[in-house]
Amino acid sequence: MAGADQEGVLQDVQELEGLAQALEVAADAQEKILLTLLAIALVWGLRWVVLRLVTRRIEEPRIRYQWGKGSAYVAFVLLLVLISQIWVEAIRDMGTFLGLLTAGLAIALRDLVTNMAGWAFILLRHPFRVGDRIQVGEHRGDVVDVRLFQFTLLEIGNWVAADQSTGRIIHVPNARVFSDPLANYTAEFPFVWHEIPVLITFESDWKRARTLLLEVVEREAAAVARDAQSRVRDASRKLFIHYGTLTPTVYTDVEDSGVRLTLRFIAPARRRRAMTQSLWEGILDAFAEEDGIDLAYPTRRIFSNLLEGKAGARAELPEGLGGGAAPTPEPGPRGSNPGPGAPEEP
After folding, report:
1. Domain that includes residue 203, residue range
2. Residues 179/121, Cβ–Cβ less than 8 Å
3. Which residue of 5, 132, 240, 300 sits 20 to 30 Å from the alpha carbon of 146, by its own alpha carbon?
């Protein structure tokens, strides 16, 4: 009987010890949770105070944004360090489990992991920064935000002409920097080459037209070319960018409907449309004062070698039709070649 009593007492003591140990573990966990919440509140409260001071003293949106992003990164790292210190013993005990869990998550969530790697690549290698104008894949726009899993573009182009904003916000996964070609319009060298084709009729004085176009483009783009020349020198320190000349020019070509004169000039990436408008207004004003220059449009022409062209290059009439060279038509107005029987001008 006494032995049974002793065995019951021993069992009760063991249960009490287990309960006390459980309560001790629970109290320790509660303490760690409380310290974790306190650390989060302290760090984010400090960040809120800093941002309030920045908002009151700084009006520049770019600087405000940089403070917001920078303070978020600092707060995240600080919280990671503090929470690791609070839970260091528990993390050490769960090391093997966390290693297996991390490996499993890396496989199951590989897209998220790739996006995080893309975020690190953007921050470290700077293929673009906030404010740059870029194109990644089929999407173009100004970078307005970079986050852990995606970056954000303010879209340009699409149904709007000449690289102007559409107003749409596009969120692009960071992993796209590894899989798609990325074009940056403004990094290091914020200028692009642009061309404006001007088509004039065959009868127009194309040499005079070319001279006028050179005057217009040099007047509008010469200052931009000088600025771009200095920026090329700066960019060449980091990238192998070399241009023999940045001065505007005009190229001559021939199309079915007339002579094509192409203005080629360098323009700021964000002012391409404004410069195009200014140049076209100057071209229209200059051509309006010239009687010998007309803009061309799609036309259909029929050329009779017996009646038109240079006299020495005309074909002869067949023997049955009289033979000999075709008669030379009387000179008419500019750009016209009247045939036989045309009425004489008064």
Report:
1. 191-288
2. no
3. 240
User: Given a cut of 50, is residue 335 above it in pLDDT?
Assistant: no
Contact 326, 337 (CB under 8 A): no
Q: How far is CA 196 from the centre of its chain?
A: 21
Instruction: Kindly state the tokens that stand for 21.
Output: 């140990």
> Quick one: 179 and 211 in the same domain?
no
Query: 89: which residues sit within 8 A by CB, 6+ positions away?
Result: none
Q: Which residue has the tokens 């002793």?
A: 6
For residue 198 the two structure tokens come to: 């001007």
Residues in contact with 161: Cβ distance below 8 Å, sequence separation at least 6, in sequence order: 273
Q: Tell me the pTM.
A: 0.63
Whether residue 308 lies inside any domain: the answer is: no
For residues 76 and 86, give the distance between their C-alpha atoms in angstroms, rounded to a whole number. 15
* Residue 230 DSSP SS3: helix
Please check the confidence at residue 238 and state whether its pLDDT lies above 70.
Answer: yes
Antiparallel, parallel or unpaired: β 150-156 and 165-173? antiparallel
Nearest 5°: CA angle at 99, between 93 and 100? 115
The mean of the pLDDT values for the chain is 80
Q: Specify the 3-state DSSP secondary structure of 145.
A: strand
Residue where a domain terminates, one of 158, 184, 210: 184
**Is the pLDDT score of 217 beyond 90?**
yes
